[in-house]
Amino acid sequence: MTGPTGSTPVSEEVGGAGIRPSEGPLAEVHDLAVVDLDGVVYVGPDPVPGAPEAIATARAAGLRLCYLTNNASRTPDAVADHLVRLGIAADVEEVLTSAQVGAALLARQLEPGARVLVVGGQGLRVALVDHDLVPVDTMDQDPSAVAQGFNPDLTWRLLAEGTRGVRAGLTWLATNLDLTVPTPFGPAPGNGSLVAAVATAAGRRPDLVAGKPQPEPFLDAARRFGARRPLVIGDRLDTDLEGARAAGMPGLAVMTGVSGVADLVGAPPACRPDHLAADLTGLLETHPAVEVTPGDPVVARCRQAVVAVEQAAADAVRPRLVVRRTGEDPVDLLRAACAAAWNWADAHGGGLAPSSNEVHSACRTFPAASRWAR
Ligand SMILES: [Mg+2]
Hints:
The protein is of the alpha/beta class and 374 residues long. 33% of the residues lie in helices and 21% in strands. The strands form five sheets. It has a six-stranded parallel sheet with strand order 6-5-2-14-15-16.
């Protein structure tokens, strides 16, 4: 959206890739929530505070849930058991892993009973068996394809065997391309890094990729539940929210995981959420509109919160997000900040995202704040 350059303000909701209002509580407007797990429902072994209660309330309001994870190492049974231990009702049919999506992709290309060399863990093996494919460990067993998914106990020998298969021209599936996985000690190599090792050695890229941000897992989830109005919920803009856009589904970003205020304010159109919330309690709320007045300065308003993008002064390097009114809800402030920043960025062909310590300070209550307050 480009605004007039003169003094006549145009007040309207952000169109295209922007923050949108909802006609009622999201749990009532939508018939399925496709929910990311790590950073949304739990962080490591522990539930995100308030998540079990919010999910129970949303479920009681009629919302169905599909828990979608890029982690291919665990089976859906193991994921459902984990959720139940956290006090969250979960049926195995409500869990969808990138291993399952990948096995379905391979099953469409291979004959039933075809052998697949597994460079991965138990979750991937079980998913292949569920799709009438036969997991094997060596090229000597004459596989028709290579399937690669995350497994913390993966060996060099298996990576070498996978490389042998890829170099031989077998169809190569990667469950996902996440470069890192979170650990208590910071990021560690994820499946994408291990796929890159094989790609470097073999000289080519995977033929099939199953996980987020591909649209396939979201479309699979909607098909499984016959959903007409699905909503994607996630903490990562570059997997959950980018995948939602690719699948043509609205997305809700929560602030309990990886992506923080700076990521949101600087988000390119392909990764922007439609809705923002501090955590999963945002499912139970009717989301407010954000009004944007384009021009110079760009001004965005969400209820009482007002944020402007003011062009750089002669001695400044970047335009600034200026908080004109904080309002009562830090999420409203963040909604206004995103709308203003995105409008400015789109009107200036991308470029620098407006920066603001004021916005960051006002949003310090978000759990993910430590990720940007560096
Ligand atoms: Mg996550």
